[in-house]
Amino acid sequence: MKWILASASPRRSEILRNLGMRFVIDPSGVAEPERATGESPSGYAARVARLKASNVAQRRRSGIVIAADTIVVAGDRILGKPVDKDEASAMLKRLAGRWHEVISGVSLVECGTLRSRSTHSRTRVHFRRLSAAEIGWYLDSGEYRDKAGAYGAQGLASLFIDRIDGCFFNVVGFPVAAFELICRKMGIELTGQLQPRSR
């Protein structure tokens, strides 16, 4: 099976490699659209993932394209990637001491036929209360850059997370269980072909 990952995310690559998958990386160049009026956050994430996968599939002759899009939702507001440190600070203050949701859309598109499957995964995440000094320390680390919601669960921000309800890998950026489910719906059985990495 020829796999193509439509993402330059090192976290997604690491998760797939840990599953024993071999793939090439071909990031999608499609611009992320605005959320449509009345569109649910989960519907939006799945739509963006589908757009990314389709964009790459249309320029390749064979293989299965994997794409994902992860968003952070606090209340009724989607928190994207912060444009600067001030916006990142506002996001972390909004998340501190509260539950929020991490939603990832994941999509597979078969090159040539453009046959596809898409779904989403939803995980609730709780941050403990954060002091101004802790937020400042995290911002100074620079880890917030290019992260939805201004944090990375696999890094220093793991110190802030005291509860998770749902798939942890979804919070990191690639929902493994949802991926396996849509593979089966595409007629692809992953369990018989994956070789875990040797330690």
Task: Describe the 3D structure.
The model has no long low-confidence stretch (mean pLDDT 93). The chain has a single domain (3-185), classed as Maf protein, CATH 3.90.950. It has helices at residues 10-18, 41-57, 85-95, 132-141, 168-172, 176-185, and strands spanning 3-5, 23-25, 64-74, 77-79, 99-110, 116-127, 161-165. The chain contains six helices and seven strands, in the order βαβαββαββαβαα. Strands 1, 2, 3, 4, 5, 6 and 7 form a seven-stranded mixed sheet that branches. With 199 residues, the protein is an alpha/beta fold.
Q: Any chance you could write out the topology, listing elements then pairs?
A:
Elements: E1 3-5, H1 10-18, E2 23-25, H2 41-57, E3 64-74, E4 77-79, H3 85-95, E5 99-110, E6 116-127, H4 132-141, E7 161-165, H5 168-172, H6 176-185
Parallel strand pairs: 1-2, 1-3
Antiparallel strand pairs: 3-4, 3-5, 5-6, 6-7
Derived structural class = alpha/beta
Average pLDDT level: 93
Shape verdict? globular
Q: Which CATH-level-2 architecture?
A: Alpha-Beta Complex
Question: How many structurally independent domains?
Answer: 1
Rg calc: 17 Å
Q: Strand fraction band?
A: 15-25%
Largest sheet: 7 strands, mixed
And the CATH topology?
A: Maf protein
Low-confidence stretches: none
Order of helices and strands: EHEHEEHEEHEHH
Structure summary, number of beta strands = 7
